[in-house]
Write a structure and sequence with these properties.
14 helices; elongated; Rossmann fold; 5-stranded mixed beta sheet; 16 strands; alpha+beta
Length: 418
């Protein structure tokens, strides 16, 4: 057990680090272009934040949270998603008194859910996400959707399809839920146990059940029961998407799994090589969440995408970025004096932005070459007694199997002149 990672977790090994870094760079670049600023919140919060924010009727709160009591007998939960913590920080720091909207993002945010580990779904996972507080117009709905697509495409994930829906607001949803319950009531005995439990607490989630949804194709749709404000918002979203040349399909079955959503909800889907499909991003509006958690009435919207799932899709597509060169130069030395000169050269190379290293294990020269070859280093600098007497080094190209003598004073320039 000491040498085995806990179930549902994965190590990010050095050989994979460049892929994570590439995804994070794409996220930061796209967000910077659109005026989003980074926020980082604690990895754990008071449990009540998620009970009130995410919703105590959700599977996340009821079944999947990592909750424990700390030494002060406070109930603490490892965060299962990023939105609630960002909202708490927005309220606590009085960001609502600053210029709004507040456009925020987080990258590789660690989240935790106790669920059955499976492909693309872990107990500890990492999310990229954006949150916008204080913007009520549907233009920001379209903006964050475009932002998500830009990030995914920059990470080699294409073939994207956008599905959108509106789940209304508390005003129009109340009447719709009564219609939905009236439709579902006679069908309850045929529904799964989970859906039977959801009937009173959150009947809309029944439409999202993979087991029962196929039986309910004639269920009343929220889209047909929107109030004037929600219908207008959804119409504007469609027009904004069209203006940005973003194709979409309307999917009345999208409800999302968290209670705080209102109005716009969406999912971005990609196909898998086996003919299936995979959701790579999901999000929507939560116009009542900030007020629910004790802040002023402020509209909000956001999305999240799991990094591990993005890595999985890259593997499926063969679109993972190539690993960069580990080192630009490796210095092989023979003898104490040569080693001292090698240490100085490595230091000079690094000072000029050249990735350089030398042997720290007191290997023979032959073993040093073997080590450099395992690292995949193309250029090896050799310093031995003969070279020291001439104030020179030998520069060996391992790929082309060529070698030349270069004056010691010119070797740094050889690596930096482009």
């Amino acid at each position: 057990m000491l040498t085995q990672a806990p179930k549902g977790t994965l190590d990010m090994l050095p050989r994979d680090a460049h892929r994570w870094q590439s995804i994070e760079r794409a996220m930061r670049r796209a967000c910077a272009l659109a005026g989003y600023r980074e926020i980082r919140t604690p990895v754990f919060e008071h449990t009540e934040l998620f009970q009130r924010g995410v919703g105590d009727t959700t599977d996340v709160v009821q079944k999947e949270m990592y909750t424990f009591e700390d030494k002060g007998n406070r109930s603490i939960t490892l965060k299962p998603e990023g939105t609630a913590g960002a909202v708490r920080a927005f309220i606590e720091s009085h960001m609502y008194a600053d210029a709004l909207p507040a456009k925020l993002y987080y990258s590789a945010c660690p989240c935790f859910r106790y669920e059955k580990p499976q492909s693309g779904r872990l107990r500890q996972f990492h999310q990229n996400g954006v949150e916008v507080f204080g913007a009520k117009d549907a233009s920001v709905d379209a903006e964050i959707i475009k932002l998500a697509m830009d990030v995914l495409k920059a990470c080699g994930i294409d073939g994207l399809r956008l599905n959108i829906n509106s789940i209304g607001c508390p005003k129009c949803r109340k009447e719709y839920l009564e219609k939905l319950k009236e439709y579902l009531r006679p069908k309850l005995p045929t529904l799964c146990k989970t859906c039977q439990e959801r009937f009173e607490r959150n009947p809309m989630r029944i439409l999202d059940c993979k087991e029962d949804a196929p039986k309910l194709t004639d269920a009343p749709a929220m889209l047909d029961n929107l109030c004037e404000e929600c219908a207008d918002h959804f119409d504007k979203l469609k027009r904004y998407l069209a203006a940005m040349d973003i194709g979409y399909a309307i999917d009345p079955r999208i409800v999302r799994g968290l209670d705080y959503y209102t109005k716009t909800v969406f999912e971005i889907i990609t196909d898998t090589p086996d003919g299936g499909e995979l959701t790579v991003c999901g999000g929507g509006r939560y116009d009542g969440l900030i007020e629910e958690l004790g802040g002023p009435a402020t509209p909000g919207i956001g999305w999240g995408m799991g990094i591990e799932r993005m890595l999985m899709v890259q593997d499926m597509r063969g679109s993972a970025p190539a690993a960069p060169d580990y080192l630009d130069a490796f210095v092989v030395t023979l003898g104490d004096d040569a080693r001292m000169a090698g240490m100085k050269l490595v230091n000079d190379l690094r000072a000029q932005g050249v990735k350089a290293d030398l042997d720290h294990a007191a290997r023979s020269m032959k073993a040093q070459f073997k080590y450099a070859n395992k690292l995949g280093v193309k250029n090896v600098v050799v310093i031995a007694d003969d070279e020291l007497k001439l104030s020179a080094v030998k520069l060996r190209n391992m790929t082309e199997s060529t070698e030349e003598t270069v004056p010691m004073g010119q070797i740094v320039e050889r690596f930096t002149r482009g």
